[in-house]
Task: inverse folding
């Protein structure tokens, strides 16, 4: 059984292979446990900046660092299922009976993998603006062209991709982390740029990126390598209720991905929001959590 240890405001669990798993809790300590899987440029700290929403809804949000991120030790060559197994180890260490699971963008495959492998532990799953499965070449066209090309390179020539990534991170380390968030926002829809202009969210994303770039290029390289391979399961095999949230203005992950996922997952419910983009997690945070916390 992993051993829990308090580390400042975050916590760590020591896993059976000796690695450390970082996580943090926000919201109502006695509320519904919700495991949260962050996006590509995220961490255990990613969430809506207003924590009073969690307390009002009775949510105990448990943000988890995937291998290599934040407080979690790296696992070279990891898969999506490896991330799910780390979550299950944490579930047992926290002595939970059941939990909900929420995955955002690149974190959505991990939420689905956890729900698939451990359905008896999951009351409900929500995926928000998910990446599509990228083990087929045609899937890359459903994500933003800039990231699509990067992910294709990570898949086809991982050595070159990691070399370029290290070069970019060296360049980025010479400037303020604010500039990366501005660059990221420039690729998104207008509704997302407005959401990101809110100071609390901008600062949260900036601080998370500053932590990521301290780890070097291996974290992002490992993540994209895992996501560009098979997730290890078929969506048709999921046996828990799944809420699928998408913004019609999403310029990063095409809404058609959400529609297709809804068709494949047996107990899926699609929420397609007209006035939202890729940052729907933040603009619709309360609605997402309220539905996730409702009876299955």
Result:
């Amino acid at each position: 059984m992993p051993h829990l240890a308090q580390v400042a405001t975050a916590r760590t669990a020591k896993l059976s292979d000796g690695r450390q798993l970082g996580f943090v809790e926000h919201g109502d300590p006695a509320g519904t446990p919700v495991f949260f899987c962050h996006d590509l440029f995220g961490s255990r700290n990613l969430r809506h900046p207003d924590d009073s929403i969690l307390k009002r809804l009775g949510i105990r949000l448990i943000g988890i660092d995937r291998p290599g991120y934040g407080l979690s030790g790296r696992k070279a060559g990891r898969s999506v299922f490896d991330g799910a197994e780390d979550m299950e180890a944490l579930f047992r260490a926290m002595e939970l009976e059941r939990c909900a699971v929420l995955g955002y963008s690149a974190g959505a495959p991990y939420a689905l993998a956890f729900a698939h492998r451990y359905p008896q532990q999951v009351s409900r799953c929500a995926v928000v603006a998910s990446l599509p499965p990228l083990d087929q070449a045609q899937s890359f066209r459903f994500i933003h062209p800039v990231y699509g090309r990067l992910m294709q390179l990570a898949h086809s020539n991982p050595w070159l991709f990691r070399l370029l990534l290290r070069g970019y991170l060296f360049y980025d380390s010479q400037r303020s982390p604010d500039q990366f968030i501005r660059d990221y926002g420039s690729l998104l829809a207008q509704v997302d740029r407005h959401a990101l202009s809110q100071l609390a969210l901008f600062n949260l994303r900036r601080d998370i990126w500053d932590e990521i770039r301290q780890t070097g290029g291996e974290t992002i390289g490992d993540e994209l390598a895992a996501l560009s391979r098979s997730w290890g399961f078929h969506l048709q095999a999921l046996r828990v209720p799944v809420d699928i949230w998408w913004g019609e203005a999403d310029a990063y992950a095409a809404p058609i991905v959400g529609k297709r996922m809804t068709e494949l997952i047996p107990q899926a419910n699609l929420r397609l929001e007209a006035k939202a983009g890729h940052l729907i997690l933040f603009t619709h945070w309360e609605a997402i959590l309220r539905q996730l916390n409702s009876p299955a």
User: Anything to note?
Assistant: The beta strands are 3-7, 10-14, 20-27, 32-37, 59-64, 99-104, 122-128, 242-247, 268-273.
